[in-house]
Specification:
68% helix; 2 domains; transmembrane; alpha+beta; Rhopdopsin 7-helix transmembrane proteins; 326 residues
Length: 326
Amino acid sequence: MADSMALFQNAYYIGNNFNAILYGIGLVLYYKIVRIMLNPKHKQARSDRFFLFFSTALLLLNTVFVATEAVFGEEMWIVNADYPGGQDAYLGDFASVWYQTFGTAASIVLNLLSDGLLIYRCWVVWDDVRVVLLPIVLYMGAFSVGIAQLYESGRPHANYFAGLAQNLGIAYTSSVISLNIIVTSLICGRIYYAGRRCARTLGVNVGSDYMGAVSMIVESALLYTLFGIAYLISFALQSQVDILFLSLYVMMTCIAPQMIVLRVVSGRAWTRDRSAMTGTNIEFTKTTHGTNSDLNLGDETPIKETSDLSLTKQSNASTMVAIEVV
């Protein structure tokens, strides 16, 4: 093996091993999603069928990527171990073999599905379509560049990591990662703001399932974005370890949205109703007279309950809910 490609070959081998490990994690997540949906006690939602098909598509596309990477490694290191010029020559001659192009296509579609879900979740968390206008523009641009890169890297004797294919790959990855960074920041910022607001208003940390660190990491697909940044940097610098970060990035492209779907079907994910609730003004006023409180909601009958606080909650529709200690 030539010294110039020794690091790349080792990174490719290590990446294939990580693919196998992370693929197992993806299978477990998919199993948990299906198990929850098939549970007789699970309250079926209109979106359940969509998320089932979506998760299945993610797993199938990820399977294609893992399988093609494994097959190419086997062909390069075992079946054609005596190829003239060694493994480096084989890599240069067969980098655009049909099943490698198929695997690249699967990873691009996987990207598009994952980014589409991420944009949708950003809209859910913010409950404002204006917030996702820029991500949608980047999404369409990434799709166009991704198709161009797929065509160029799939041409005979082309190489995904060299020439025009590499330049298109940098442009595609840059647009995708920019989209990821923007959407991840928007989701993290919204969840952090909502958590701080509730903690400041109520004086305690509430809703940790929706506003805690785990929620922030999962809902924003933070790991997906971080591995994407690592891959983009190594790819742009033409580092020989870029193939390792590519493998990790593609695997996170499947695992991160599966984790989001699992939270959704488990009833622990953000919804538009919950987003609207966090945008409501809540104020507390201490009172010193009385022992009971009234909860008045429109023309509903007052509900008596013991309390030490007076809560005034006013929504955007100017509906007043008052709990007053008397």
